[in-house]
Amino acid sequence: MPKPVLHVAIVGAGLGGLAAAVGIARAGHKVTLLEQAKELAEVGAGIQIPPNSALILKRWGLLDKAQSYSVRPRDIVLRSYHDGKILSKLNIFPFAEETYGVPYLLIHRADHHRILVAEARRLGVTIHLDASVMWIDFEKPSVHLKDGNEFHADLILGADGLKSICREQLLGRPDPPHFTGDLAYRIVVKADDMKKHPDLIELTEKPAVNYWMGPNGHAVCYLLKGGGLYNIVLICPDNLPERVNVAKADVQEVLDFFEKWDPRLKTLLGIVQETTKWRLQDSKEMRSWRHRAGKFALLGDACHATLPYLAQGAAQAVEDGAVLGALFSKIESRTQLPAILAIYENLRKGRTTKIVQGCKAVRGIFHMHDGEAQRERDRQLTQEEPFEGYPNRWADPVFQKWLFDYDADLEVECAWERYKEGNFPGVAGHFVARL
Predict the structure, then answer these.
(1) C-alpha dihedral over 410, 412, 417, 423, to 10 degrees?
(2) To 5 degrees, how large is the angle CA 357–CA 359–CA 363?
(3) Cystine design at 208: which of 75, 186, 270, 416 (Cβ 3.0–4.6 Å)?
(4) What is the rounded distance in angstroms from the CA atom of residue 134 to the CA atom of residue 128?
């Protein structure tokens, strides 16, 4: 009996929505993306592609393309804010490929987005721009757009980010993003400008993800665009007005905050010409990501927005898309849609919750004030071999394996086998259990 071809509408054409579109289209289904912007353009600068998402790109045949736009860091380095002293160094190249079979990459967000857009279009995904969602009929299901049109599909996925209309529709109430108390200054400088300063040359010649950890903030810096640009993200206490989430910033306020930090970091900040600051926000954990009718679910930042302190936000959205794609490759009947969404949520919700909580824990590790706890952190980093709970979370042997060794296809294979045997939590056989 031929498998059904379903029509899936995805609200939002960011990295998560595009990943879901690619995954589901690869499974042979019709996909339409509804994007509120009038043109496709991803805002931002550098992001990281860790092994757990690089594996997905490899299986989709996109890793070579991503590598052509990327830098491979040699190490992840944690430094003291006082003088830049290295407290912990984790080799990531060639370690990631030797251990996980794929590289760890640094890429401009716009390049990552462009790769997924091209692949979605190659697979026949339809992209509607200037398509703003007003409300959702979860039973039909359908999406009502701002222009008055109603868009019907077999399934609707909400991938419309942190300020998600889809999430608020599912909850039945307003659910604005929540303040975290932090903001990020995002900066890109030319590597050639750095090379004019002898103490910065090493940063341009030895690709690494460098973290400086200090009181109430941290800096993370790495090369982009084949080494031609240097990406700088500075995390500081939120000083934006309540109703302003993004604003141009005075470079002097950056210099003032980091005045007593590592002289080399201060030299780097001295060549900055302009910067923008972004309030860092997240969302509260939801009881469920899906509607009881079994025709709607959320993914990505719409349901598990997190602080960027583990460099996993984009990777988790891509994982969501890969799991959905793998599940849709298994579907045998339209009646299995509720079960598909139940399995998806079961596979993804616990993992993303652990990462959201882990990012908050990293904030505490990175932003320590000088004192007994900071000295003990530094002692562990400099004197002990990595152990479970190690302050460098990427070097923690247990957490690292759990984080980087995730295989979306394998997770789905195991889950589907249990589902077919009637042993998957929340579903039984071919129907959703009435629990």
Answers:
(1) 120
(2) 115
(3) 75
(4) 15
For residues 12 and 79, what is the distance between their CA atoms, to the nearest angstrom?
38
Task: Give residue for tokens 């679910």.
Answer: 297
Q: Can you tell me which residue has the tokens 């824990």?
A: 361
| 210-232 exposure pattern, b = at least 16 Cβ within 10 A, e = fewer | bbbbbeebbbbbbbbbeeebbbb
The residue whose two tokens read 């079960």 is 339
Q: Which of 329, 335, 310, 303 is nearest to 409 (CA)?
A: 329
Q: Is the dihedral of CA 198, 199, 200, 202 positive or negative?
A: positive
Cα separations in angstroms, 271 against 96, 110, 197, 219, 309: 33, 24, 10, 16, 25
Give the C-alpha separation, 3 to 14, whole Å: 29
Beta bridge partners of 157: 10, 297
From the centroid of its chain, how far is CA 105? Answer: 14
| pLDDT given at position 7 | 98
**In the prediction, which pLDDT does 88 show?**
98
Are the C-beta atoms of 79 and 86 separated by less than 8 Å? yes
> Which residues neighbour 209 within 8 Å (Cβ) at sequence distance 6 or greater?
48, 73, 75, 76, 77, 92, 106, 220, 221, 222, 311
Query: Which residues lie across from 278 on neighbouring strands?
Result: 184, 246
61 DSSP 8-state letter = T
pLDDT at residue 428, as a whole number? 57
Judge whether 308 and 280 are in contact, CB under 8 Å. yes
CA dist., res. 314 & res. 80, Å (int): 27
Which parts of the chain sit beneath pLDDT 50?
A: 430-435
Cis, bond preceding 94 (omega within 30 deg of 0):
yes
Quote the CA–CA distance of 89 and 353 in Å, as a whole number: 27
H/E run at residue 392:
none
Q: How is residue 206 annotated by DSSP?
A: S
Sheet with 155-158: list strands edge to edge.
126-128, 30-34, 7-11, 155-158, 296-298
Buried-exposed string 83-109: b where 16+ CB fall within 10 A, e elsewhere: ebeebbbbebbebbeeebebbbbbbbb
Q: What's the token pair of residue 295?
A: 């025709």
Q: The whole model's pTM is what?
A: 0.96
d(CA 82, CA 370): 10
Six-digit token pair at 141?
Answer: 């299901």
Provide the 10 A C-beta neighbour count for residue 411. Answer: 19
